[in-house]
Design a protein that fits this description.
The structure is a homotetramer. Chain A is α+β, with helices and mostly antiparallel strands. Chain A has a single domain (24-156), classed as Thiol Ester Dehydrase, Chain A, CATH 3.10.129. The first copy, chain A, is built from three helices and five strands. Chain A has helices at residues 55-69, 74-79, 151-154, and strands at residues 33-38, 83-93, 102-112, 116-125, 128-140. Residues 1-17 of chain A have low confidence and may be disordered. Chain A binds chain D through residues 41-42, 44-46, 48-49, 51, 53, 99, and chain D through 41-42, 44-46, 48-49, 51, 53, 99. Strand 2 (83-93) of chain A pairs antiparallel with strand 2 of chain B.
Chain lengths: 158, 158, 158, 158
Amino acid sequence: MFSASRYRDFDRGTVRCVRLELDPSLNPTDYPYAHTLRVRFAETDAMGIVHHSRYLPYLEEARVEYLRHLGHPYVELRAEGVDYAVLEVFVQYRQPLRFDEVVQVHLRVGAATRATFQMAYLLTVDSQVRATAVTVHGCVNAAGRPVRMPAWLLALGE
Amino acid sequence: MFSASRYRDFDRGTVRCVRLELDPSLNPTDYPYAHTLRVRFAETDAMGIVHHSRYLPYLEEARVEYLRHLGHPYVELRAEGVDYAVLEVFVQYRQPLRFDEVVQVHLRVGAATRATFQMAYLLTVDSQVRATAVTVHGCVNAAGRPVRMPAWLLALGE
Amino acid sequence: MFSASRYRDFDRGTVRCVRLELDPSLNPTDYPYAHTLRVRFAETDAMGIVHHSRYLPYLEEARVEYLRHLGHPYVELRAEGVDYAVLEVFVQYRQPLRFDEVVQVHLRVGAATRATFQMAYLLTVDSQVRATAVTVHGCVNAAGRPVRMPAWLLALGE
Amino acid sequence: MFSASRYRDFDRGTVRCVRLELDPSLNPTDYPYAHTLRVRFAETDAMGIVHHSRYLPYLEEARVEYLRHLGHPYVELRAEGVDYAVLEVFVQYRQPLRFDEVVQVHLRVGAATRATFQMAYLLTVDSQVRATAVTVHGCVNAAGRPVRMPAWLLALGE
């Protein structure tokens, strides 16, 4: 579906090209949207807590629900040939998540450029901070080439 | 297994407490160890590439093999009551990974403090860079309290 | 948490000891409970459909919600030292599931013995059959030994 | 990639259309091939054992390696437009798998028809039986329609 050069055009040609700029707030009221989910048993590991890799699908699920809330369902965007490649991910695990806990994933769109945008996340359980995260995305077309972000998405940026 | 306060003592009490300090080299020779694995079909997603969350178990598997290579199998460490909590994760996706590709996960221990250490990773396929990553870990005892790092681990740091 | 002999006492000492007896109905009204979930992008594979392994956490999530609905939350059962080991799983994939689809997981308790019980499942999307499944479970204590099923669970069996 | 009717033509129009016919042997010498893998920490759950859903990717990885061993790599088959839809899965969990264990996945092709074939599996650790499984597959083309099995695959059947 995507050419091998898929992400290349996002690169800056230097070793250090981290784009992460956001500093996720620990205050839920700083986020315009929150998605609620419940931890599955299958997401725990032998330490008795949610495995650290399992947070990324939580963030993704929250992004999908936020896009739907904004009137731009991800399935429609994909049908139009626009996709959001994940370029960078950062997660800070502050308190573990456990089986059956109900997690609020707060999120907001942060810094945006013509072809990339960032999202900040705050994960809470009963108003207690559990994790923060930032993801950086690039808009690509069906051939995997970077394309300009839709205006509505650009407008969400800070 | 772990108290709810498990990670708390690693916190610095400020909003910004990112510990990531490493800048992973793109040169495989900068890493003392490499672990080889093959992409499973179950790890791909509907974009036809490896889902971004699936890189984290790759890093973990490489850490486990590196510890074994160093003569300190993770199962023994866990049996002794020492565990390595994941405090932070950063991944930069540069080129997608695909089903059946053979991935080299190069890694090295970076900055270390009394209770935390960082690891840097370079993922390559046929010497082509696919991703870089950094993880930050804290040593905890069976009660989830931070403990001093073993001397052999501290010695690996830069 | 469990001894190596955990499942042994459920065995019958013969090669053929399949316990599956249920024939899941394709009619949703034959099930007393249904749990609704939405397919995550992370659950799809490079065929563009939900990976077949991802159905098992769907069944598990439905079981957990059914127990809660019955007034016996799984976390409480686990806290009391009773766990439900999965002894057998059977899934029949009839139509693929896709990203973002809303799935109804219908389920019911079927055949029960003193130490095992079976559950039947029907997965539908917009009343269209997608899959059926059966799971066989054994009740074990904290030491991993089979124990008698709670009376309320036995009463649910056919 | 596949039409919504993908699996339909495999159906028999009856409620009961389980195709599972194999009875996996507990004797490793009954299998012509074995694939070795090591349990990842990410595959464990809060019971301290490998989550039951994680066995299915093990079976899949073993199938992929067996096809490669036979000179018919799955990526080539997919490039030629032939895919192997999973129609049914059955797993019997006899003894739990644990983190870091080295698992032998023994497998063989069993009953085959013009459009479907079955595979039997035996999972062992240090010659100790841990699980058995059967999967049923159908050959489909790029449009998701059932196609005849390749002759070399048919010849492997019993």
